[in-house]
Design brief:
10 helices; P-loop_NTPase; alpha/beta; transport; binds adenosine-5'-triphosphate; nucleotide-binding; about 30% helix
Length: about 325
């Protein structure tokens, strides 16, 4: 980000009590199938929120409703203080969207396309938000400077994905929706993209709602993680909070006298201290494993249904089946 960045910070303007996203009782029915039954959540300025959930859980549907691209069946939705179902162009200029794929304009050159889209945002510049984002700065921010003169149809999948992101950012949005933004990116591009998301949130206070199937990415990028399953948000919090709330325990593994032991406890530090007090030097291969986001995710999705519409109801989670102390 350039030195100009901080001067372009967005301000808390017309939203509801500081909430950029405020969703209550959102429902979506396709035909006779309820995909979203009761989705409720909020997000504040500068927050990065990851929406997780199995295939078909309704993540894209939710995002499209918030973007104003899809009409909801019921519920209250406020995005930047406005109902997206009735939003105008000025509202749209404050919202950035990165769709799952961008396949048009193959004959256009990269810089040319971004500059072209940028012109749409000129009327929506304000004293505090200069729109659009300068094309060369934007190209640099998404790592496309060297391909600026290339035709879009010659870009690789990952390079196109960077262009998707640039298109979402060209209007300097206050709120950015990213639907599976890193699908198809190589590890380096992914790393650079993560740095860009962090910069947008930290320097510009851009609020970001992203969907991903990469739990490590969600844990790394998001201030908050929401899990959508069975038509509802079944978890909302930091990765640590979710792990603590769901699993509530650490797993301690060790060897002693040639045997392997496993113990599940909410107080692993005290347990390990006592273990050493009792067995001292005889303890070997000690390992303390906190519940991971993956454990939490699997437990919650299992407990609240398959994620898709009409999934099974309550079922014992993986975490519920843990034994107390076992040896092998
Ligand atoms: N226009 C539509 N008409 C009917 N059903 C639809 C429509 N769009 C989506 N669905 C259904 O709604 C459900 C949720 O789809 P959605 O794409 O929102 O899920 P998702 O969580 O984004 O999935 P994925 O992780 O696979 O991208 C799916 O069962 C899908 O088949």
């Amino acid at each position: 980000m350039n030195s100009e960045g901080k001067g372009l910070m967005t301000t808390n303007t017309s939203d509801d009590g500081g909430f950029v996203l405020d969703v209550e009782g959102l429902r979506m029915r396709y035909g006779t199938t309820d995909v979203l039954r009761e989705v409720t959540f909020r997000a504040r300025h500068g927050e990065v929120v990851a929406l997780l959930g199995p295939n078909g859980a309704g993540k894209t549907t939710t995002i499209e409703i918030l973007e104003g691209f899809r009409m909801r069946s019921a519920g209250r939705v406020s995005v930047l203080g406005t109902d997206p179902a009735h939003a105008d162009e000025a509202w749209r200029a404050r919202v950035g969207v990165v769709l799952q794929s961008w396949r048009d304009h193959g004959k256009w050159r990269v810089r040319e396309l971004l500059a072209h889209f940028g012109t749409y945002y000129v009327p929506y510049a304000t004293d505090t938000v200069r729109r659009p984002w300068d094309t060369d700065e934007l190209l640099a921010a998404v790592g496309l400077s060297e391909l600026a003169g290339d035709k879009i149809r010659t870009l690789s999948g990952g390079q196109r994905r960077r262009l998707d992101v640039a298109i979402g950012l060209v209007g300097r949005p206050e709120l950015l929706f990213l639907d599976e933004p890193t699908a198809g990116l190589d590890p380096r591009a992914r790393h650079e993209f993560h740095a860009l998301v962090n910069r947008l949130a930290a320097e510009h206070r851009t609020t970001i709602l992203l969907t991903t199937h990469d739990l490590a990415e969600a844990e790394k990028l998001a201030d908050r993680i929401m899990i959508l399953s069975g038509g509802r948000i079944v978890a909302d919090g930091t990765a640590d909070e979710l792990a603590r709330r769901t699993a509530g325990a650490d797993e301690v593994r060790w060897t002693c006298g040639g045997r392997r032991f496993t113990h599940v406890t909410a107080e692993s530090t005290r347990f390990v201290r006592e273990l050493f007090r009792e067995h001292g030097e005889a303890i070997g291969e000690l390992e303390v494993r906190r519940a991971s986001l993956e454990d939490t995710y699997m437990t919650l999705v299992h407990r609240h249904g398959s994620g898709g519409p009409g999934g099974p109801g309550e079922a014992a989670g993986a975490g519920d089946a843990r034994a107390a102390v076992t040896s092998r």
